[in-house]
Structures are given as structure tokens and as C-alpha cells.
UniProtKB/TrEMBL annotation, chains A, B:
Domain GST C-terminal: 89-220
InterPro entries: Glutathione-S-Trfase_C-like, Glutathione-S-Trfase_C_sf, Glutathione_S-Trfase, Glutathione_S-Trfase_N, GST_C, Thioredoxin-like_sf
CDD domains reported in the protein's UniProt record: GST_C_family, GST_N_family
GST N-terminal domain segment(s): 1-84
Designated name of the protein: Glutathione S-transferase
């Protein structure tokens, strides 16, 4: 059966779950913490030792292990036509890919490693308290990214244009993970809040918002579309 | 005319130059240092303020600005059939994309930011001497990556399989930039040295190896295919 190695609060894993649900592709979810891969199944599927990894049985037969998230997205688009994640035109595809990479890579490096990874991964790895200097740096970078998203959404209905694309999915995946730790100043960025409310209502996002980490409850507004 | 915003020793820029030459697509090269974008042309073409950015006039008409490197690669593959950078099968494409992301992103984060960026960018930005602790961390990570490449090349003629792909181009781009500062212990990794000698001989790589940075000459073996 189609299987996704993931972590519940890992933004890239969330993006792939969201994308597969939009394409109508069910998958068995198996949680894999890279720092606790005792049996080596994660390293065997992805020598980089990171989630997400998609283990798929493509329509053309066989079994295939795909990673990282950017390669999974291209694979899904090529293997399954339903629920396209990318627009049809060259310019549209380039813009969706630019912003998908922006949120999967740039946002990750500038915001999530200093916030989510400090708050959540350190706790899961039992590595002590978060570093408040890093959290502050992440919060500052987050404000800049939210400002950029608000600027885009002033001109467009979705981040990369007039249709929802992988860019929205990647951004929503990041922000949903940060929202779990109540780190997103939604009230300061109304266009982003409105956009996120639209994404929260999508059936593809509902199961992701139902995930809970033991001992770390999300804020009350977390899975409420009218937040 | 097709234009590439680049920096001569930036690995991702080198990968795109190499890829375009393999596809037979000439481009005007314009050097853009992200930290000296006084007229804002780089930020206008890529809000992330990073090179490479491809400004293309696609066969379908109009003008398009594409970034980052991963999106440029997908764009080139979709817009131009000649000189394919990805294999034809799903499994082949996934493997080439996995290793392309490995060298463009993981290798960059684990090796190049600590070595090339310390040695070259700091010099260009006049930010003082490299930090030797960081250079040592980068050298250790480089040995691990070269070991992984050697392991792959023990089983395959090229990094991602039996044909040259974007994975080889991305890896060669990183290693060529590190080789410019004489940082690659080729003699310890004979399969990687042999593979790199094959890439060095390709006409697509020759112009890249002719670039020189003022006041920073490369080692004598740098552009010699029989090194």
C-alpha cells in the first residue's frame, strides 16, 4: 500500500499529506523520527535520513521510494493527473515552483529551524529548553515572510495566482505547524488570515489539523476554520 | 536575449550554466552579487534576492523570470526537449531529482556554506578572514559526501544511473567551485575523481572552468581534465 514516512509537525511532511489528499491519493502514514531510526528503514528509503519519504506503487508497476518533498511533488504531478498541484502554463508553473521552494526551503531555513525545531524537535529529542534568542530571530523572520505573503495576496486570490497550487499548500503546511505552537500573529496580517481560513476549510487539510502531540496541546483556535 | 543572473563561483549558478549548455541553449551571463543589488534588478527578478535567475523568452512567447535552480531545471526540461536532464522513467526521474536536491541543497547547507561561502563570499564582501572552525566542519562533511558519491559510483556509471543527469551536473557544479579553492581531496576518492574527469571533458563544462576571480587564482590542476 502507498505509504508516507512522516512526522506530524514536520512542515514538508504536512505539505505532501495535503498534496496527496488534494489529488485523492490515500496513503498509510508511518511516523519516523530521523534521530531514532534504529531499524534503519528510514535511511534505507532515503539515505538523507529525512522525512517525508513516499513509498508508492505507481500505475506503471513496481515500487518506488521518493524524496525529498520537492521530488515527491514532481513525481505526484507526473504520475497522477487528478487534482493538479501546478498550473498549465510555463509562467504559472515557474511561479508556483518558486513559491513552493520559498516556503519549503527558505521559510524553513529562516523561520522554522529557529522556532518549530527549537520548540518541538528539542522537546521530542529531550535536548532541553528552547533558545530564546533563536525564537526571537525566527519570530522576526516570520513577520517578514507574512508581510510578503500579504503583499502577494493583495494582488492575487492565491499565492501563485488565481488558482490554488502547491505554493499555497507549502505555505499552509509551514504556517499550520507554527500555529500548533501558537506562534503566528494572524491578527497583524488580515489577508494571510483570510487566505489561511480558506485553506483550513478544505477537506484535504482537516485530517492534518486533527493530529495531536502528546503533552503539547495546540491553542483553541488551531483547527477552527472561523478563528 | 536569454539572460542568466549568476555569480561565477556560485554552485547553483554553475549547475544552471552547465545544464543550459548541455541542452544547447546559449545565454548572456550577467553577474549579480545579492549583497550589492543597488539598482534592485536582482530583487525585481527574484524577490528572494538570490542567484541564479533565468530570464528567458520561451518558445511560446513572452518573457519569464525563473528561480531558484530547482525551478529553472524543471522549466528547462519542460520548455526544451534537447539534451534531457532527467531520465524517461518515474524511478529514474525520482532518483535524479533526489540527488540533484542532495547536491544543490543538502551539500550546500552542510559543506559549501562553511567552506566556499567562508572563503570566497567573505572575501568578496570584505568581511574579514574565514573562520577555521567552520572550514574544518565543512571539510569533515565534504569527506562524508565524497564517500557517498564514491559508493554510488561503485554501482553506477553516473550518480543517478547509467546516463548522465542533472544529479551529475549539480554535484559537479558544487565540486568545481570547491576545487577552485583547492578544497577537494580527490586522491582519497578515486571513483569520484574518475567521474569528475569525465565531466571536466564535456564541452558544456569548459567555459565554466575558464572563469577566474580577480586576486584568487585556482590551483594548477583546476581546469586540466587529466588532473
Amino acid at each position: 500500500m502507498r505509504t508516507l514516512f512522516h512526522m506530524p509537525l514536520d512542515p514538508a511532511s504536512r505539505a505532501i499529506r495535503f498534496a496527496m489528499a488534494e489529488k485523492g491519493l490515500p496513503a498509510q502514514l508511518v511516523e519516523k523520527r530521523p534521530w531514532a531510526d534504529e531499524d534503519g528503514t528510514l535511511a534505507a528509503a532515503n539515505p538523507a535520513g529525512a522525512v517525508p519519504v513516499l513509498i508508492d506503487e505507481p500505475p506503471t508497476g513496481g515500487e518506488i521510494a521518493v524524496s525529498p518533498a520537492s521530488a515527491i511533488i514532481e513525481y505526484l504531478e507526473e504520475a497522477y493527473e487528478s487534482g493538479p498541484l501546478l498550473p498549465a502554463t510555463s509562467a504559472g508553473r515557474a511561479e508556483a515552483r518558486r513559491l513552493s521552494a520559498w516556503f519549503l526551503d527558505k521559510f524553513e531555513a529562516e523561520v522554522s529551524v529557529f522556532t518549530l525545531r527549537e520548540r518541538v524537535d528539542k522537546r521530542l529529542m529531550r535536548r532541553g529548553q528552547p533558545d530564546y534568542e533563536l525564537l526571537k530571530a525566527g519570530a522576526d523572520a516570520l513577520a517578514w515572510h507574512l508581510d510578503y505573503a500579504a503583499w502577494l495576496l493583495d494582488q492575487r486570490h492565491w499565492l501563485a495566482g488565481e488558482k490554488m497550487t502547491i505554493a499555497d499548500i507549502a505555505a499552509a503546511a509551514q504556517l499550520s505547524a507554527l500555529d500548533y505552537i501558537d506562534f503566528v500573529p494572524w491578527e497583524k496580517f488580515p489577508p494571510v488570515k483570510d487566505w489561511y481560513a480558506r485553506l483550513k476549510s478544505r477537506p484535504a487539510m482537516r485530517p492534518i489539523l486533527r493530529d495531536r502531540i502528546d503533552g503539547l496541546p495546540p491553542p483553541a483556535h488551531y483547527d477552527n476554520p472561523d478563528f
